[in-house]
Amino acid sequence: MSDIRRNLDNEFAYRRDRALWEAERRKQEVISKIPEIGSIEAEITLTGLRFARGIISEDLPSMDSEALTERLNQLKRRKEELLLSANYPADYLEPRFSCGICEDRGYVADESGNYVPCSCYRKLYLQRLYEFSNILDDGNTGFKFFNEEYFSDKPSKQKYKSEISPRENILAIRDHCLKFIDNFSDKNTWNMYFFGPTGTGKTFLAKSCGLELIKKGYSVLYLSAPTLFSIIHRYRISNPSEDTEAEQAYRNLITTNLLILDDLGTEPRSDARYAELLSLIELRKNRDNTTATKTIISSNLDLKHLFQEYNERIASRIVGEFDTFRFFGDDIRIVKKIGKMSP
């Protein structure tokens, strides 16, 4: 997100300024004890300028170039000797950047000469995306932890109201989720609505999609339905000039690449809430025309109950603009517990 990148750019600028300021402080400290180093530093600067001007103007004879280079090396060696003799490290006056590759600029030139984010920048950006997402890294979420063995491979139309087994169903949903991730920026990729009983893998797959998209550099925001409506309510009643945090939180709902809305239907019912949800879906749909902006909603409400619990405008919007997936099977948490108790 632009806010994350803006904050990172400011942080790297601060890091670099801090490293340069600390280097200047050490330089003044050393010069006060070893005045000759001050003269050497001044001569190094002047010699370097002469060398650079000669290269730019292309009128620096090769002999002068070699002489200037040799003089610079002599000055640097003398400076190191003075530092070592005074029990300072040879590189004591050099800036101590946290990243030696980009020197805390955050960007480096690629083979074409274009500036691209440094590896340190990309790593920190990914970390900030994780923090922003609200998806806690519990060590059990993600497609690598997906285990179809928790789902029965035996069909039962009477029990599951389906011709296929829970395992066949969850594998089909998983495969669609992977396609959703691979084609996330495609305008033809629809939102997803997961519905079914508690403990059938809805939240797990929604979060797993989020984690994979974060790795690709997309912003993800995971919220329960009550939390989402609290954010919207605070924004509606707040004064934007006084409560900038509320405005930012609401803007995040609209601009995040993937919004995961969990447990729809657990929030208090009201006509105002319905209108707020409809408005949010519409705002995100409009944004998706220019920037990948998708939504995953999970709920215990099947399509019939969705129409009963919400007004027709919201229910028809979800049915018409979301790929809908029914989850069924035994409660995974109970299956896991029984498995642990088994000898």
Report on this structure:
The longest helix has 32 residues. The mean pLDDT is 87. The chain has 343 residues and is α/β, with parallel strands linked by helices. The protein has 13 helices and 7 strands. Strands 4-5-6-3-7 form a 5-stranded parallel sheet, sandwiched between helices. Strands 1-2 form a two-stranded antiparallel ribbon. The chain folds into 2 domains: 98 residues; 208 residues, P-loop containing nucleotide triphosphate hydrolases (Rossmann fold), CATH 3.40.50. It starts with a helix and ends with a helix. The radius of gyration is 30 Å and the shape is elongated.
| Mass-distribution shape | elongated
| Number of DSSP helical runs | 13
Helical coverage, percent range = 55-70%
Describe the sheet with the most strands: 5 strands, parallel
Nearest-integer average pLDDT: 87
Give the uncertain stretches in residue-range form. Answer: none
Q: What structural category do the secondary elements indicate?
A: alpha/beta
The largest beta-sheet arranges its strands as 4-5-6-3-7
Helices and strands, with pairings:
Elements (H helix, E strand, L loop, with lengths): L1 H32 L1 H23 L4 H24 L21 E3 L5 E3 L1 H15 L23 H4 L5 H17 L8 E5 L6 H14 L4 E5 H13 L6 H12 L2 E7 L6 H17 L6 E6 L3 H7 L2 H10 E5 L5 H10 L2
